[in-house]
Write a structure and sequence with these properties.
alpha/beta, Rossmann fold, 2 domains, seven-stranded mixed β-sheet, 15 helices, 11 strands
């Protein structure tokens, strides 16, 4: 299968190299290094100068590329306006969209597809930081900022940077099954083979360390005592503030509510336990502070997009385990 990755100047290098390594590794594990033939396509120059000055030698330019592409991915980068390209880029993308089996984007590569008019009426995702801008640019699209990757027919879009590897892994699973995809994930020591509906937000990523020492102390307290009382009254006590003032200051400092932060921290921990242990669901729920298993299950689905059992099965090749 011919996989082409379109790379723009100042592209995020991992948007290109990450998915490429997933496809290449799959070929080697299948015993057929040419199962996926990966090539880099540049806009016009044979060398693509990526973000930070790292250079990639392209296999083709838009003008020199020949042959049918099976899977086309468009890399992203921080220069969203530059990623849109010119009429030549947009025309090339529209032509390819009519013939490829799969058309996708990594991170802000969605803006290239948007400029070519390929997202109209579609369900898509992108890096969470740019989701609102994409929704404003393509009002007819349904932008899901809380997904790792999304498939809408032959259109595939992923969240930021490393999520491109998850997207490529999902494509390998489509082509060759779950066992091969899991083998690729293990070979690349990927932290997690994440289902597409999993949230790209986490307590560590979206709620960074607060500037005020009192709020930092609360964050540390949450991570250290997931099984404890983490209601607003208790956390306000840790911060030595009134409940009302604490809730206001916490949101100002972190951008999220205390309840959102606590739930996300607990589910982050639950995901790690689900990945690395076979403990029954009731015990797992208790380990992260949930006395009510059903409440835990609902919170997990809300944050991850699948049930704890479905999530865990991604790490066991589909074999059943407790919970």
């Amino acid at each position: 299968m011919q996989v082409a990755i379109l790379a723009f100047p100042r592209a995020q290098i991992l948007d290109v190299a990450g998915p490429a390594d997933v496809f290449i590794t799959a070929g080697h594990l299948l015993g057929n290094p040419r199962a996926y033939r990966v090539s880099i396509v540049s806009v016009d120059e044979p060398v693509v100068k990526c973000l930070g000055g790292v250079k990639l030698v392209a296999d083709h330019t838009l003008a020199t590329h020949r042959g049918r592409i099976d899977t086309l991915l468009v890399a992203g980068g921080p220069d969203v306006d530059g990623l849109k390209g010119d009429d030549t880029v947009q025309d090339w993308l529209r032509r390819q969209a009519r013939s490829v089996r799969r058309l996708g984007s990594v991170c802000t590569g969605t803006f290239s597809l948007a400029a070519a008019g390929l997202l109209e009426g579609r369900r898509v995702t992108t890096h969470w930081r740019w989701a609102d801008r994409l929704a404003s640019q393509v009002p007819s699209a349904t932008v899901e900022p809380d997904h790792i990757h999304i498939r809408d027919g032959a259109l595939y879009t992923s969240a930021g940077v490393t999520a491109g590897m998850d997207l490529a892994l999902a494509m390998v699973e489509e082509d060759h099954g779950q066992e091969v995809a899991l083998a690729v994930a293990r070979e690349l020591v990927m932290f997690v083979k994440r289902p597409g509906g999993q949230s790209q937000f986490s307590a560590h990523v979206v709620a960074p360390v607060a500037e005020r020492s009192a709020i930092r102390e609360v964050q540390d307290h949450v991570f250290a005592t997931l099984r404890g009382d983490l209601g607003v009254p208790a956390l306000a006590g840790v911060a030595r503030m009134s409940e009302r003032n604490f809730a206001r200051v916490f949101r100002e400092e972190t951008g999220v509510t205390p309840a959102w932060f606590v739930e996300t921290a607990r589910i982050d921990a639950a995901r790690r336990l689900a990945e690395t242990s076979a403990m029954p669901l009731k015990r797992l729920a208790g380990e992260v502070g949930y006395a009510n298993v059903e409440a835990f299950r609902k919170a997990f689905v809300r944050r991850v997009g699948v049930t704890p059992s479905e999530y865990r099965s991604r790490f066991t090749g589909g074999h059943s385990v407790p919970g």
